[in-house]
Amino acid sequence: MPQEISLKDVPGLVGTVVGVSDWITVDQPMIDAFAGATMDHQFIHTDPVRAAAETPFGGTIAHGFLTLSLLSAMNYNCLPKIREQTMGINYGFEKVRFMSPVRTGKRIRGSFKLAEARFRGAGMLMNTYEVTVQIEDERKAALTADWITISQFDPKDRPEGV
């Protein structure tokens, strides 16, 4: 996939995987920082000794929302930039499913399939991605989501006929 594409190229990519991110290591300092930012200090995330003794995980696990929040970093890492885009907006999710816990120290990456791309208004392109966050060396995904983003652009750059 090229690092940069044009608005007119986006509709032709629907149905294809448009990016797979680099691996990100989810370590205890990252989990602890997220716990502090969200005030979610549940022991399964922040107490390795207790989590090892009292959970089936063998230690601490990442917050599901931490894994979800890393989609932004994964997106920037692997999706082609739209040449005409002036701003990107996170519109939301249709569906998020936390499939498997991410154990501390594991590496994850995102795979982005463009499910839909439609022009809205004079200067917006709404993209829906089917995202899967994989856990290295594990069969089951950490999460799946349908993520909707908006690419804003100058209306004069809108391709003809769309």
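^ that was protein a. below is b, sequence first then the tokens
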Amino acid sequence: MRLTTKGRYAVTAMLDLALHAKQGPVSLADISARQEISLSYLEQLFAKLRRNELVQSVRGPGGGYRLGAEAAQIVVAQIIDAVNESIDATSCGGEGNCQDGQICLTHHLWCDLSKQIHQFLSGISLADLVARQDVVAVAKRQDDLQALDLIEASAV
């Protein structure tokens, strides 16, 4: 299974954006701090997400990013696809040259698994994730830690 940090970070950042959508545009710096993802890496990911219309940028003071559609309309598979991440369980990258340039015995099995995973992720929206109590609990902890960091930084 090849889902790299690019796909994981993109989904994490989009979920963070969805969780904080009611507060207005969300800065990449805030996402970076909460999720411990490099700001420059987020900028690269959000450029791809913007090109795929999954996010919109808001310029000016108080600017940042907002979702490009309702959270219920954005599914996890779209996010992964937008950052050019493939969900591929084959050892050949789906090329069919797994055994001396030919299809191996289990090639079709791993292709079917890849399709099932993509289909599964196509059935999960950001709204579904935002509604989960375990996700909300983690987001609250992250928000509390970020607020504490801001208080400590201003006291110095």
